[in-house]
Amino acid sequence: MGDILTEIIQQKRLEVAQAKLTEPEKALLAREQALPPPLDFAAALRKPRFAIPVALIAEIKKASPSKGLIAPDFDVEKIAGAYSAAGASAMSVLTDEKFFQGHLSYIEVAKKSSGGRVPILRKDFIIDEYQVLQARAYGADAILLIMAALDDATATMLQEKAQSFGLGVLVEVHDAAELQRALSIGADIIGINNRNLHTFEVDLQTTARLVPNIPSGKIIVSESGIARNEDIVLLAQTGVHAALVGESLMRAASTAQGLDIHALQTMIHELFRNAES
């Protein structure tokens, strides 16, 4: 692990230990049992809401370690509603508090604001089975597993735990070695992160390089650095099924006058403008 990722994981271990004391598994199970079944994350990614054959996973993100504060005027309810109305097939919600200024409660807000019709991915650094139960208990439909942060045994354990709750699992990789590890644990949804988590540098060609090594039948998601219509067109040409877009959408919504929902929706239509139905 690189410096940034190492620091995040060390912090996450402390947070998980504290969370287990604050909200024990018994309490989470009680919450989980009161919820309806999770939405089908994989099926949503196979059905883009635009004519272009790339589904949009729209991300709700206030800040990041590399860019600092991204969205000063941050309203999860309004953003999630706008994403749903503008054609997002799924939403990614950052729940890491220290590094991304996220919160678990944002999952519930996003789910309610979208009418419970759009699958929600919990975007966090998941290292413990407790976090999987936590994700389900707060209404997530899918979780992210980052191969750079996990050994194969832990990744397998977490994936199986998620599947036992009916959650989708997006397994994230950045290079060929991580891709092979993801395939070896039976990942069905492969996320290619164009951002190197060791340096936080971004290269969209990372997706183009790795896609040919992914067997047919897998769902491929490209993550990070996607900001232009040309990027979406390129991803469609490489065979990607979905694009996770966060920072460019958040910045489009953040204006000097505050949160601009119209600008946010305009940005989404701009990304997909050449092939909308």
TrEMBL record:
<dbReference type="InterPro" id="IPR013798">
    <property type="entry name" value="Indole-3-glycerol_P_synth_dom"/>
</dbReference>
<dbReference type="GO" id="GO:0004425">
    <property type="term" value="F:indole-3-glycerol-phosphate synthase activity"/>
</dbReference>
<dbReference type="GO" id="GO:0000162">
    <property type="term" value="P:L-tryptophan biosynthetic process"/>
</dbReference>
<dbReference type="InterPro" id="IPR013785">
    <property type="entry name" value="Aldolase_TIM"/>
</dbReference>
<keyword id="KW-0210">Decarboxylase</keyword>
<dbReference type="InterPro" id="IPR001468">
    <property type="entry name" value="Indole-3-GlycerolPSynthase_CS"/>
</dbReference>
<dbReference type="GO" id="GO:0004640">
    <property type="term" value="F:phosphoribosylanthranilate isomerase activity"/>
</dbReference>
<keyword id="KW-0456">Lyase</keyword>
<protein>
    <recommendedName>
        <fullName>Indole-3-glycerol phosphate synthase</fullName>
        <ecNumber>4.1.1.48</ecNumber>
    </recommendedName>
</protein>
<dbReference type="InterPro" id="IPR011060">
    <property type="entry name" value="RibuloseP-bd_barrel"/>
</dbReference>
<keyword id="KW-0822">Tryptophan biosynthesis</keyword>
<keyword id="KW-0028">Amino-acid biosynthesis</keyword>
<feature type="domain" description="Indole-3-glycerol phosphate synthase">
    <location>
        <begin position="5"/>
        <end position="257"/>
    </location>
</feature>
<comment type="pathway">
    <text>Amino-acid biosynthesis; L-tryptophan biosynthesis; L-tryptophan from chorismate: step 4/5.</text>
</comment>
<keyword id="KW-0057">Aromatic amino acid biosynthesis</keyword>
<dbReference type="InterPro" id="IPR045186">
    <property type="entry name" value="Indole-3-glycerol_P_synth"/>
</dbReference>
<comment type="similarity">
    <text>Belongs to the TrpC family.</text>
</comment>
<dbReference type="Pfam" id="PF00218">
    <property type="entry name" value="IGPS"/>
</dbReference>
